[in-house]
Design brief:
heterodimer, A: 356 residues, Rossmann fold, 2 domains, six-stranded mixed sheet, elongated, B: 288 residues, MetI-like fold, 3% strand, globular
């Protein structure tokens, strides 16, 4: 049973297609993210699910029932807005009670329900506070409480962490995940921040130019992307461009644009002679100073220290910079050293070059 | 040095304001208040007391004129709010970015013409030999020309037309500050159109509503030309009484008394309005 399914949804604004033939099924109680750069149509998709836009074609079903013709205020989908949209003229209690009163709950039950949901989001007793008195993280939780008190089938979250500072954002990621577990409600989370999507989600759909590129678990997206866009957008990657020289089974060798030849795993239907891109994760690269088994040579340009996320920048012969996360090499090499980079061919993914 | 310069600039900036408040507002008010308290008992001989006020309250026609002026002004304010709110909402929320400025300008254009000319425009339309009357006769809808001037309805129409802009401007500026997401959140959480309007739009626009109502009420109650020109001799507008006392009867003492009473009474109405709706003057300036 899917809480939310979309069947080939398309949305056109005049001649512009914002969302093109998108289908997705979200199982009950899961945390599903739509990840994509700004302008990829993810907000339009969410607004169609909430009912603020009508799809040009396709169907949206909530718990199996089509809701395309249901007005937004009658859908069991609640939404946490990008800037939260808490009502400034009401206090916290009134904000949360608003939905209950619209639904026509018995007056006597409302204070009890408000108090209970505030307890569940970890802010008991703040009913009489004004919105302006809350901190960013508290507002976030009130916005979620305001939706969850109505026990929706699906909760939509439209980049709600965007306005928070970095430290709080890291904290809220974990907290959102915990809240989702606690309420056992399906969350549909929209973001352009790949780390938010990877950390919190059970499944992620990567969206680009109005289409889904790939749907899968965070690990699948990271380890086996199916397109160059996904490989480049999800997680950090070094991207080398070149021409496919020779294909042997799954492995292929590429003549790089700046000179040099590398081997990797061919991940789509490119043919010898095609322009391709090779994606290399920073942690898949190892630095060696001996020339054996070398696949790329360069000099250490700089060391970027960031605790566990430290990087070594190596400048290749064609002057491209490559990021490497090799903790064992971090102490042994210095700026200006000539080094060689090696990797297992399986971890270098080759995709057709994007026209850009 | 820097502090002295700062103080000097503060004084220089405040000086015009202080002069304006002092010379053009406080001083005349004190003068009017002073004149209202004196009574002429002979040539260049005056006595001081509340005799003028007693005379006002003793004469029903004066009292009733003041009450009538206040009541019609309240009606004008309410009508201006009812008519102005949709216009302001359309300009602020529904019109496209480009047409917004044009629409706003179209509201402002009538203000470039003086009150007199605008009132005269209504006269041209509504008088017995006016455009509407003659058109209706020539279309055969009515047998004889009708006089549509010189009644209360015309005065109310004319006043609403004169003051509505001062309702629209503050409403547009408060409504423009409202994030559309608030409305969407209102629907998303299950509110009907009416609920969203009553519980989100109106409370949000309250500062604009309050300041718009105060301005339009004060303008309507203090207007002179429109009620006189459109209502004629029997418009019984309170400013007309003040004018009569000052100019026609040359009774400055009574005129000053009426002036003080008009200010006092309209302020009282505004205060009562604020109390009734649970608002304070502070809400008109402070947002969030």
């Amino acid at each position: 049973m899917y809480d939310l399914s979309c069947a080939s949804i398309t949305k056109k604004f005049g001649a512009f297609t914002a969302v093109s033939d998108v289908s997705l099924d979200i199982p009950s109680g899961s945390f599903f993210s739509i990840l994509g750069p700004s302008g990829c149509g993810k907000t339009t998709l969410m607004r169609m699910i909430a009912g603020f836009e009508t799809p040009t074609s396709g169907d949206i079903r909530l718990k199996g029932r089509s809701v395309v013709k249901v007005p937004p205020n009658k859908r069991a989908v609640k939404m946490v807005f990008q800037h939260l949209a808490l009502f400034p003229m009401m206090n916290v209690g009134e904000n949360i009670a608003y939905g209950l009163r619209c639904r026509g709950d018995a007056k006597a039950d409302i204070p009890r329900k408000v108090a209970r949901v505030l307890e569940r989001v970890g802010l008991p007793g703040v009913e009489t506070k004004q919105i302006a008195q809350l901190s960013g993280g508290q507002k976030q939780r009130i916005a979620i409480a305001r939706c969850m008190v109505l026990e929706p089938d699906v909760l939509l979250l439209d980049e709600p962490l965007g306005a928070l500072d970095l430290k709080l954002r890291e904290h809220m990621k974990i907290e959102l995940k915990q809240l989702q577990h606690q309420f056992e409600t399906t969350f549909l989370y929209i973001t352009h921040d790949q780390s938010e999507a990877l950390v919190m989600s059970d499944a992620v759909a990567v969206m680009n130019a109005g289409r889904f590129e790939q749907i899968g678990t965070p690990r699948e997206l990271y380890d086996s992307p199916i397109s160059g866009f996904v490989a480049g957008f999800v997680g950090d990657s070094n991207c080398l461009t070149g021409r496919l020289a020779e294909v042997r089974g799954e492995q292929a060798s590429i003549d790089l644009d700046g000179g040099g030849t590398v081997v990797g795993r061919l991940s789509d239907a490119s043919r010898p002679g095609d322009a391709v891109e090779v994606f290399l994760r920073p942690e898949a690269l190892t630095i060696t100073t001996s020339e054996t088994n070398a696949t790329l040579a360069g000099t250490v340009d700089s060391m970027l220290f960031n605790g566990a996320n430290s990087r070594i920048l190596v400048r290749l012969a064609n002057s491209q910079l490559i990021e490497i996360a090799d903790p064992s090499a971090a102490t042994s090499v210095r700026q200006g050293d000539a080094v060689a980079l090696t990797w297992q061919p399986d971890r270098a993914r080759i995709f057709a070059g994007r026209a850009a | 040095m820097g502090r002295d310069a700062g103080r000097l600039s503060l004084i220089l900036l405040l000086a015009p304001f202080a002069l304006w408040i002092g010379l053009l507002i406080l001083l005349p008010q004190i003068g009017i208040g002073y004149v209202s308290l004196r009574e002429k008992v002979g040539f260049n001989r005056y006595e001081y007391g509340f005799g003028n006020y007693a005379a006002f309250f003793g004469e029903p026609i004066y009292r009733n004129t003041l009450l009538r002026t206040a009541w019609i002004s309240v009606l004008v304010t309410v009508l201006a709010l009812i008519l102005g709110f949709p216009v302001a909402y359309y300009i602020a929320k529904m019109a496209r970015e480009r047409s917004r400025a044009a629409l706003f300008l179209m509201c402002l254009i009538p203000l470039w013409v003086s009150d007199l000319v605008r009132a005269y425009g209504w006269i041209v339309l509504l008088r017995e030999t006016g455009v509407i009357s003659t058109t209706l006769v020539s279309m055969g809808l009515i047998a004889e020309p009708v006089e549509m001037l010189y009644n209360d309805v015309t005065v109310v129409i004319g006043l609403v037309y004169t003051v509505i802009l001062f309702m629209i401007v503050p409403l547009v500026s408060t409504l423009q500050g409202m994030d559309d997401a608030l409305l969407e959140a209102g629907y998303n959480l299950g509110g009907s159109r009416f609920t969203v309007f009553r519980r989100i739009v109106v409370p949000y626009a309250m500062p604009g509503i309050v300041s718009g109502c105060i301005i339009t009420f004060m303008l309507a109650a203090g207007s002179y030309l429109t009620p006189i020109l459109l209502g004629g001799k029997n418009s019984s507008w309170f400013t007309e009484q003040i004018y009569n006392q000052f100019i026609t009867r040359y009774n400055w003492e009574a005129g000053a008394t009426f002036g003080v009473l008009l200010l006092g009474f309209t302020s009282l109405v505004v205060w009562a309005g604020l109390k009734l709706t649970g608002q304070s003057l502070a809400t008109t300036v402070a947002k969030e």
